[in-house]
Amino acid sequence: MGNSSSLERVVELTSIMMAEMEAQAFQDERFAELSMRQILYLSTIIHMEEPTFSDLARELKVTKPSVTALVGTLISKGYVRKVQDADDRRAYHILLTPKAREFNLLHEAVHKRLADFLAAQLDDDEVEQLARLMTKALRGIHA
Question: What is the DSSP string of 101-120?
Fold first, then answer.
């Protein structure tokens, strides 16, 4: 498997940089109320496009009661709302509010800023190589 200490340092530095960029971006008082776990759930909901509570629990590998509790908090903070499924009246979909869409724009800007920073340190071929290697290394991370 090889020595991973240099890779550990890269992961650590990337995590620190990302945390600093997100902390700076989320100083915006509109989103300061969100915890890191709430940000994770909200980001997942955004990418899943109107999941049910069960879908979200499966994706995050957590229990449905955990999802219900945290989504309840996101509802009370105005980021999402729940709507009953037209076909299965027992199921509810989680829908984004305009506030969640504003959050997503800011969150995407943080990711773009990090990508732009990394790209500025490398030439075009290195950027492509890094993208290929990271894609390969992270394959299956959500499996």
Answer: HHHHHHHHHHHHHHHHHHHH
| Mean pLDDT, residues 33-55 | 92
- Position 110 pLDDT exceeds 70: yes
**CA dist., res. 14 & res. 3, Å (int):** 19
Name, in order, each residue with C-beta under 8 angstroms of 133's C-beta and a sequence gap of 6 or more. Answer: none
pLDDT score at 10 = 84
End-to-end Cα spacing for the chain: 21
What is the rounded distance in angstroms from the CA atom of residue 20 to the CA atom of residue 28?
Answer: 14
What tokens were used for 115?
Answer: 């990508």
Which domains does the chain show, CATH number per domain?
5-138 (1.10.10.10)
